[in-house]
Amino acid sequence: MALRGIKVIEMIGLAPGPFCGSILADFGATVTVVQKLDPSPVDLMSNGKRTISINLKQKEGVKILKKLCANSDVLLDTYRPGVLENLGLGPDILLKENTKLIYARLTGYGQNGYFSSKAGHDINYVAMSGVLSKLTRNGKPPQPPINIIADFAGGSVLCVLGILLALLERTKSGKGQVIDASMTEGAAYVASWLFKSHNTNLFSGDPGTNLIDGGYPFYTSYKTKDNKFMAVGALEPKFYSDFLKGLNLSADMYTQGDVDICKKKFEEVFLTKTQEEWCAIFENLDACVTPVLSMDEVDTHICNSSRKSFYKNENNFNQPEPAPKLSATPGVASGKQILPKHGEHTMTILRELGYTNLKIQELIKNNCIYAHTNSHL
C-alpha cells in the first residue's frame, strides 16, 4: 500500500483524530494509538491500529512517548494547544530529537489566535467558518449537518492532506515540519466554492431559496408512498425533461420556472408510488433521480454492490471501503480487523523500544503504563 513503512503515533482523541489515523492506516501506515490508563468510553476507530496505554503525568510515561516519536514519521496531536508543550513534548523538543518527524496538530481553532484555547464541537467550528449560516431555510435556525463538515471533511481529511504534503516535501528536504490543522479553517476551505459563488445568481436569495440549497423543486428530495425518499437533481434542461417523463407530466405545464406550482405537484406525484417503484421508473431515464438509501441498505444497491463499495464488519454492520481507489496501491480497510483491547500492544511496543521484562513489570507496578492482561511477559 502507498503508506507502507510510515509509522504514525496517534494521541487518543475524539472522532476527528481517530478518523485521520484510520485513513492513514487504510493506506498502509502503521498507526499506534497512545491511550490513557483508563479506557476511552467510545473507541470506534482503533481497528487495524496498535494500542499502548501510558500515564503521561509521570516522567517515565513522557520518556516512553519521546522514544516512540524518535522512531516514527508522524505524531498526530489532538489535544488543545499547549498541552503537549506542558508535558515537555512540544514540537521544538521532539523535532530536535527527530528532525524528520511530522508533527500534525488537529484542533478546532488552530494553534494560535483569540479562540485557540476555547472548547468547541463541530457545530461551533462550522458556525465560525461561515458555512452554518447557509444551512437554514425559511428563516429558521441553521441545522448542523451531523459532524461531517468540520470534524471529518475540514478536520480529518485536510489533516491527512497536510501529512501527505509534508511527507512529500520531506523527500526533498529530509526534514519534518509542524502542521497546524484548524477544523474551522478546514470547514471554510472545503466550502471555498460557496465563498466564491456567494454573490452570484446561484445564491442571490435567502438560504433555502436558491438553486442548489433546496429552494427549487428540481433539486430537492421527496417522500414516497412507503415513507421513504427520492433525491432529485434535475438541474439541466435535458435532465429535467427526462424527470418530467418519469413523472408523466407535461413539459408545457410544468416549466422549471414555475417553482411553487411544480413543488406542490411533484410532492403529490411522488406520494403515489413506493421508492422501489420510482427506482424502476427512473432506471432507464437520465434524470438525476436516485433513492435516498439508508446505511443499512446501502451495500445492496447495484450502484454500490457493482463496485464493492462497502463491506460488513465483525458486527455485520455496513462500512465503507477506503476511497479513492488506487490502481497500483489500493487501500485495505483497517476496519476489517478486530478492535484491539485497551493497552493490547503495550508490552510488545515497549520491548521494541528496548525495555526489559523487569522494567515493564516495574512500570506496571508504578501505574505508569497499562497492559492488557492477555499480553504475557
Main β-sheet: number of strands, strand sense, barrel status? 7 strands, mixed
Question: Between the first and last Cα atoms, what is the distance in angstroms?
Answer: 32 Å
Structural class by SSE content:
alpha/beta
Number of separate helices: 14
The percent range for helix content is 25-40%
Q: Uncertain runs with pLDDT below 50, 5 residues or more?
A: none
Dominant shape: elongated
| Mean pLDDT, all residues | 96
Total beta strand runs = 12
Report the C-alpha radius of gyration, rounded. 25 Å
The strand line-up of the biggest sheet is 6-5-4-1-2-3-12
Bin the strand percentage: 5-15%
Order of helices and strands: EHEEHEHHEHHEHHEEHHHEHEEHHE
Structural features:
377 residues; alpha/beta; seven-stranded mixed beta sheet; three-stranded antiparallel beta sheet
Can you give me a brief rundown of this structure?
The chain is an alpha/beta fold.
